[in-house]
DNA sequence: ATTTGATAGTTTTGTTAAAAAAGTCAGGAC
DNA sequence: GTCCTGACTTTTTTAACAAAACTATCAAAT
């Protein structure tokens, strides 16, 4: 019975890998269940044996990606020597996360509204982990006495994370309002975020 | 000839006022040229005598609003006693601008992409004025020696303005990704922005 | 120079049919 | 009983097209 479940888990994993590749290269709506099944040389019906529907399959891939990301954050939790280091780590890790899975997230841009509700749960987990990481770093500094006491570290981190998300490209004349940045702009955005960190962390001292 | 032009300008102004009201209450797409003409007891054809088309009419209203906003910024240009005051002024003025014309900007949310190109020109003017105002304030402080010298004030202001735009509501669990904030959230956003100012300005010291 | 009714041209909306994809199920293999 | 499939049903997407609504134009009137 355990052996059976192992087999199941292995197959589930295979399905997730194949799905990840498809979603990564073609996005959610341009990927069909038949194609995924074809990649694995199995029938479409079998996919539905392992996953209830397409969006759950997508979400399962997403949860796996998110889980990897969360793991990276947790591994470093409480191990920072100063505030700046913590903020830098969060921004850099996040940057890599987005760059490595850029096309996968086309799903967000395409559907814009009416996404499956469960997606926000995962997004919430990620955000909470980021908040926890940075709020803890702030609290540590407060305890050490190296920055002034603050009323509410979480509130500050929320503002910081929002501010990060606001950073866009297009200096002098904004041209098109595009919610999702183009891939070739990610590095420029990243650099601006590093500048924001400099100022923000200094402002907390 | 001058009298004639005066008359023209007065009528143009009337049209702009009526259009403003319509756009403000019903948004761009839910306002028809017939309705505007009806409000003014004139024929639709006459509207086209004064304005080339509907989007140009909308843009004319927008330019008027933008012009008022720019005037407010210019009146205070260089008259700040410290950096914080300048940043506060910009954020507060911007807040009032959005609140007072909230529904007018539904146009942006509805059309999202494919807006008339001229709109970005006006948006650019606003942004440039904001940048100029704040960059000047920073430079003044640098000259006074009350904050450290910075390599590029404009770059810093751009990051600040982007950060401001990123401030959203929805603390713990984000629910719906909505590009345009709801009206009832504007005050909460405003308060968060004030917090950002505190930290950001301090970070420049 | 201003104004309008009539009308031409275009965009939006609603309908329907065909195609494609999602999702189901009875039954076969092990 | 677990895993798997081909055939099938249901739902969604796409395309085509007609009707309605709206934008935009223009000859003629004041």
Automatic annotation (TrEMBL), chains A, B:
Domain HTH tetR-type: from-to ranges: 9-69
Coiled coil: none
Entry's Gene Ontology molecular function annotations: DNA binding
InterPro entries per record: Homeodomain-like_sf (IPR009057), HTH-type_Tx_Regulator (IPR050624), HTH_TetR (IPR001647)
A matching Pfam family: TetR_N
Keywords: DNA-binding
PROSITE patterns documented for this protein: HTH_TETR_2
DNA-binding region: 32-51
Protein name (database record): TetR/AcrR family transcriptional regulator
Organism: Mucilaginibacter terrigena
Organism lineage: Bacteria, Pseudomonadati, Bacteroidota, Sphingobacteriia, Sphingobacteriales
């Amino acid at each position: 019975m355990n052996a059976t479940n192992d087999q199941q888990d292995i197959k589930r994993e295979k399905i997730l890998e194949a799905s990840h590749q498809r979603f990564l290269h073609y996005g959610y709506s341009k990927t069909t269940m038949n194609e995924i099944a074809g990649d694995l040389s199995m029938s479409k019906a079998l996919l539905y044996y392992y996953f209830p529907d397409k969006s759950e399959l997508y979400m399962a891939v997403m949860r796996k990606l998110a889980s990897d990301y969360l793991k990276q954050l947790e591994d470093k939790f409480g191990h920072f020597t100063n505030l700046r280091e913590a903020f830098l780590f969060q921004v850099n890790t996040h940057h890599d996360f987005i760059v490595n899975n850029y096309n996968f997230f086309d799903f967000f841009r395409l559907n814009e509204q009416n996404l499956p509700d469960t997606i926000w749960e995962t997004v919430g987990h990620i955000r909470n982990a980021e908040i926890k990481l940075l709020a803890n770093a702030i609290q540590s500094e407060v305890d050490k006495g190296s920055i002034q006491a603050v009323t509410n570290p979480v509130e500050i981190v929320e503002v910081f994370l929002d501010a990060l998300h606001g950073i866009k490209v297009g200096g002098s004349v904004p041209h098109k309002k595009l919610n999702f940045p183009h891939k070739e702009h990610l590095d420029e955005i990243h650099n601006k975020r590093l500048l924001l960190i400099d100022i923000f962390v200094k402002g907390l001292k």
